[in-house]
Write a structure and sequence with these properties.
Length: about 450
């Protein structure tokens, strides 16, 4: 994950190309480019996926079941065996000052040759005591090297024994690319933080940072790449995630304001009689959450401004029912409604839901997907354009160039993140449609 960055001026230190960072050079710069890291700012805001806490390496004799712990030992034996079929069991045995500890992996036979004989390794996991010996199931592994590292050399050869040497007590773990080891990435990131963190400008006002109990941005950058504690690392990640969510919410607010100021849409009044008719189609009473969502949608579609709403709830909470209510409200007002799904399978699932709910209704409906004959598609498209169809369920086939709507009032986009901006915007040009985007899962 890379945090969102503002544009950088050419003379901004954070715009320094990665090839000029300590420990990089041309060869490693090419590797960083493959990760999308081209400037010092890219490296600073390249969030580690997690961190390994090695502040308390436990003696093998003091291990306890159930707690995530780390042991250190020398690799003295390895074994891999078939469990039948394609299943394998691979073990690496560490000598931890005379106490033997095994790392255990299922269906990962490549681990057998990943680490050199006599290598000093760290195993981190929740150990289990079995048959008189501690076992670490699928542990995180780090290689310990006593030799001087290559931090001062841009393109020296790195060790070939896996994860690379341990540096410090809290070890950030980054996404990598071929040829780049974790130890190299850690040193590059740490050096970048030491040199450029002071150049980071915090875009979030101090009062917001303080109210949210977050560290300043420059502090967070340092703690991400050179953490002083696992707690400080966690707070640094929380600050970066906060900034990303804040930028996202501000973007939505600006878009919503612009959409509300400029986007005109037909007013769809939902009377008590229409509300009752729609609810009678369902063999159950709406939940309090569904009632509240319906109330907000009714208020939105009853205004002269286009609705643009994300419907969010747990899987199975009944989002499709709310979306269908919005579509039926539009149809009751004399408009068409469309539901677009990302795949034909999902479109058919929605179609079955619609068919069950509207089996005894007079709503004219049509499934519009790609895998139909040319003649059938031509007939469907003509019916949509003429207004002979009230409710359309389909895939991207509903926004192809040959599809026009007679009087589209509400568009529902399921799993809207799977469609591009241009695809979703196609509905906006269809009579200033109101839109509803319920995430997948009911």
């Amino acid at each position: 994950m890379t945090a969102a960055l503002p544009p950088l001026a050419a003379d901004d230190p954070l715009a320094t190309p990665v090839r000029f960072l300590p420990g990089v050079g041309d060869r490693r710069a090419a590797m960083l480019h493959r990760l999308g890291l081209r400037t010092a700012a890219d490296v600073l805001f390249n969030l580690p996926k997690d961190a390994l806490d090695l502040t308390t390496v436990v003696a093998a004799g003091d291990l306890k079941e159930g707690d995530r712990q780390t042991v250190r030992g020398r690799l003295v034996d390895r074994d891999s065996r078939s469990l039948g079929g394609r299943k394998t069991l691979t073990k690496l045995l560490l000598d931890c000052d005379g106490v033997y500890v095994a790392g255990v992996w299922f269906n990962q036979p490549w681990v057998l040759r990943k680490y050199a004989d006599d290598a000093e390794l760290l195993f981190t996991a929740k150990p289990k005591f079995r048959q008189g010996r501690w076992e670490f199931p699928n542990p995180d592994v780090e290689v310990v090297e006593s030799e001087a590292d290559d931090a001062g050399e841009a393109d020296d050869a790195e060790s070939e024994d896996g994860e690379g040497p341990v540096e410090g007590d809290i070890l950030p773990r980054y996404r990598l690319t071929e040829g780049l080891t974790l130890s190299q990435m850690r040193r590059i990131s740490r050096a970048a933080a030491e040199r450029f963190a002071d150049a980071v400008t915090d875009p979030v006002p101090d009062e917001i940072v303080t109210a949210a109990s977050l560290p300043p941005l420059d502090v967070a950058v340092r703690e991400l790449h050179a953490p002083t504690s696992i707690e400080a690392f966690g707070e640094a990640r929380r600050r970066m995630i906060f900034d990303d969510l804040l930028a996202f919410q501000l973007g939505l607010a600006v878009r919503r304001r612009a959409y509300g100021a400029e986007g005109a849409a037909p007013r769809i009044e939902v009377s008590a009689k229409v509300d009752a008719r729609i609810r009678r189609l369902f063999p159950f009473a709406f939940t309090a959450g569904q009632d509240e969502a319906v109330r907000q949608i009714v208020a939105d579609v009853g205004s002269p401004r286009a609705m643009h709403r994300l419907l969010q709830a747990d899987v199975g909470a009944g989002k499709t029912v709310v979306a269908l209510y919005a579509m039926l409200a539009a149809i009751a007002g004399g408009y068409q409604a469309v539901l677009m799904a990302p795949t034909a399978v999902l479109a058919r699932q929605h179609w079955l839901t619609v068919e069950r709910a509207l089996a005894d209704s007079r709503v004219r409906r049509r499934l519009l997907i790609g895998d139909v004959t040319a003649a059938e598609r031509k007939r469907n498209v003509a019916d949509v354009a003429s207004g002979a169809v009230d409710l359309i369920v389909g895939t991207q086939a509903v926004i192809q160039d040959d599809v026009t709507f007679a009087r589209l009032g509400v568009a529902v986009v399921d799993e809207q993140h799977k469609f591009g901006v241009a695809q979703r915007a196609r509905f906006a040009s269809a009579a200033s449609t109101s839109s509803l985007s319920p995430p997948a899962g009911g």
